[in-house]
Amino acid sequence: MKQHLRHMNALRAFEAAGRLGRMTLAADELHVTPGAISRQVRQLEDALGVVLFEGPKNRPVLTAAGKYLQPTLSAAFMQIEQAVDAMLERQHTTLDVSCLSTFTMRWLIPRLYDFHASQPDIGVRLKATDQSAATPVSRSDVAISVAQDEDEEATPADVFLFDELLGPVLAPGLADRLRLGEPADLENREILQTRTRRNAWSMWSASVGSAVRVLPGTEFEHYYFTLEAAIGGLGICIAPWHLVMDDVRAGRLTAPLGFHASGYRYVARRNGTRDEAARLFCDWLQAQAVAMPQPEPLGARAVKLASAPRSRPPSRARRAR
User: In which residue ranges of the chain is CATH 1.10.10.10 found?
Assistant: First the structure.
């Protein structure tokens, strides 16, 4: 290290005094006495062989040499502070992430272990919202929201995740009784409703070009209640693929009419805070979205069902267990 850089305390004292204009203010900022600031400034002047302040002691002003040195030191100390802050933030960062409540429960939380494993120094604090799909999610470090195709153009801070796919889902036992093979089979059927997504049926019927009339069934406060009702055999609901794919693949739900694009897309937006951590989280979200399984084409499902042996219904004694 060069000799003059050994006077780091003196450089810091001079920078504060020159920037603030008074020794007392510099002393308050650095938590020392005004006398200590004056001594440090004199030591620096002796080391450099120049006078940095002139005028009365209670109101010193910078000399030409002082005016040359002070702004350079201020910029250097600011850069050091920013580098240290960035390092501390990277080591101990907690991101505030907001998204719709059912998405949080059924898509995000089951995958978070993977992010924590790859980025153990970045915590995630989830904030669920029950706003409707067409309403922007409130601001946070990262906001995962649902946008319509005709909404405003994406910004550089937006990360596309996936297009929403909608379809009717129901419990396998109910599907065996109803034998749904085409949208017309839903005529005058009751459809389970969700208060926050009352337009789900109209969106799906528009996507398949159907004018079938259905009846409004039981309405639930949240989508996850509606999905649990469908799993329990209480009726048919229109659901997004990403919320039910695990249930469909596990056989808890079936989707006899497939899934179609709703015109909505899921987007993650960084809101300008904790940029590096937010970027890493959004990159991870996008990778998870790309790896997400897609629904089987209807033809493939029909072949599979036709070739599978029919299972007998469980006996009354077995059902009673």
Answer: 3-91
